Amino acid sequence: MPGDRRLDGLFERNFPGNGAILVGMSADAILSQTPPPGARPDWTIDQGWARYTDAENRAVWITLYERQTALLPDRAADPFLRGLDALDLHRTGIPDFARINEELMRLTGWTVVAVPGLVPDEVFFDHLANRRFPAGQFIRKPDELDYLQEPDIFHDVFGHVPMLTDPVFADYMAAYGEGGRRALGMGHLHNLARLYWYTVEFGLMESAGGLRIYGAGIVSSHAESLFALDDPSPNRLGFDLERVMRTPYRIDDFQQAYFVVPGLQTLLDVTTQTDFAPLYARLAQAKDIPIAAIEPTDRVFTRGTQAYARAGGRTGKAA
Ligand code: PHE
Ligand code: FE
Fold first, then answer.
1. Which atom of ligand 1 has the smallest separation from the CA of 183?
2. Contacts of 182 (CB under 8 A, 6+ apart)
3. Beta carbons of 308 and 233 less than 8 angstroms apart
4. What is the C-alpha to C-alpha distance for residues 64 and 228, in angstroms, rounded to an integer?
5. Which residue has a Cα nearest atom 10 of ligand 1?
6. Could you list the pLDDT tens digit for every one of the 319 residues in the chain?
7. Which of 77, 88, 113, 232 measures 20 to 30 Å from 294, CA to CA?
8. Closest C-alpha residue for ligand 1 atom 6
9. How far is it, in rounded angstroms, from Cα 9 to Cα 112?
10. Which residues surround ligand 2, an ion (CB under 5 A)?
């Protein structure tokens, strides 16, 4: 089913190495638009917090949590670090959604809901537009700390939820949900998904102390938290809405380009104050920009060597 256009959006908003779940579990359900057995009509399920094992809590959540928080103080953007504090996600292990939802609701009106895996685009956007973040409820195995086949609760909760405590980012994600429904109707999800990818998943931000990471795909990955800021390979370019929507991306490896926003307010303002309909019409005529290209109009933070990608990336290294 990879190759089926109806799955494009799912591929695009998913996390690196995402093929497995589509084949293994939910592609049929997603294509038939029917929630799997046991899920509610909006595809949510109970988190089943009491059922996590000691090993899952200790060997996986706490290990990953401590490894990431040791790395993030000078790397993650302030809104992320503030959110992490506010939610107190450490405690004794995998957080109980009911507990974090009290604080999240109080701060920005968002909640986290558990889903069995990927959900159809309409369902995903409907949750976001209503300030519900659908999160995977399962956690990776202790031998999969570094490579994730599909987004698990660590990626979804540690990676995404702290940013949702920020009022500006919270508004951006809800607006994105509305924008997603509109893009679907207009047949331009493909372009809009790139905005999600280069901001929500892999965004960088300027700060007084230099570049910082805020994208969930970076902050939840030990290796990419280093690569995204320190490696000479990738391009780091100023965020421009139309430019980003013309740029394809990697779903299976570190990014070849990262886009830097001056701050969250700018991101919210340009996206909510722009009517995407004429933009989509223009994009239908425009060519994609090759993934590693630098345009004359780009603001260049780093002109990447692309050495990592040229050496074959993850596979090149393993071989
Ligand atoms: N302004 C966008 C539109 O006209 C909607 C949107 C807002 C999309 C914020 C993404 C983020 O479709
Ligand atoms: Fe994600």
1. 12
2. 276, 277
3. yes
4. 18
5. 176
6. 333 444 444 444 444 433 223 333 456 667 777 898 899 999 999 999 999 999 999 889 999 999 999 999 999 999 999 999 999 897 779 999 999 999 999 999 999 999 988 899 999 999 999 999 999 999 999 988 987 767 899 999 999 999 999 999 999 999 999 999 999 999 999 999 999 999 999 999 999 999 999 999 999 999 999 999 999 999 999 999 999 999 999 888 999 999 999 999 999 999 999 999 999 999 999 999 999 999 999 999 999 999 999 999 988 865 4
7. 77
8. 179
9. 21
10. 216
Name every residue whose Cβ is closer than 8 Å to that of residue 268 and which is 6 or more positions away in sequence: 168, 169, 171, 172, 175
Backbone angles phi, psi at 306, to 5 degrees: 60, 20
Structure tokens at 300: 């260049």
pTM metric for this prediction: 0.92
Asked whether 274 lines ligand 1 (CB < 6 A), one says yes
Q: Distance, CA 130 to ligand 1 centroid (Å)? A: 15
Q: Residue holding tokens 């929630």?
A: 35
